[in-house]
# Entry
Amino acid sequence: QSGLTQPASVSGSPGQSITISCTGTSSDVGAYNYVSWYQRHPGKAAKVVIYAVTNRPSGVSDRFSGSKSGNTASLTISGLQAEDEADYYCSSYTTATTWVFGGGTKLTVL
Amino acid sequence: QVQLQESGPGLVRPSETLSLTCIVSGGDSISIGSYYWSWIRQPPGKGLEWIGSLYYSVTPKYNPSLESRVTISADTSKNQFSLNLRSVTTADTAVYFCARVGDWYKSFDHWGQGTLVTVSS
# Structure
């Protein structure tokens, strides 16, 4: 199974919005609404910020939102803050009953 | 609040077996359904790679690219699960994470902090 495709890096200024894409296939992202997004700060445990494409766990800022169109899912962070600077990963459940991750996107807050 | 903590040697020789354990605490029992108990890794400079997942009383699922070398098993008496990766090479050098996956949404909702395993002679 191939990994999901994410941009290596994105950047934005405080207060701006950014979007990170996650492209897969009809066997993973396009097959189910089982796409999740994770935030990971260096040396810390990863934290889920979006699950099931659009759902936000309790305690996650409403500045984080998710969407999906066909085989591509997206994470949008609005009102960028310095604390959002981190690595972001997507994951998807697949038709083979396995999981696949994206390569990760480094978000820089300028 | 469930917590996961990886443990195991930080250095493994090529061709040997990498063995890690994930201790689950905070009230969750790995012998109850509704969750998959999983291993993920991240080689230096690369993205995350799912290794495999264990669901109580069901045959584990493995990444096809690693399936011939991987075994994930559970010790319910200690509430922990383990990863064995055989015949390692330098390409298996990575930070290894354990995580819990909720069955409803297939999301990795709790993670350990990860442990670096280096394969080197």
Summary: The first strand of chain A starts at residue 9 and ends at 12. Chain A has no helices and nine strands. Chain A touches chain B at residues 1, 3, 6, 32, 34, 36, 38, 43-48, 51-52, 55, 57, 89, 91, 93, 96-104 (CB under 8 Å). The mean pLDDT of chain A is 96.
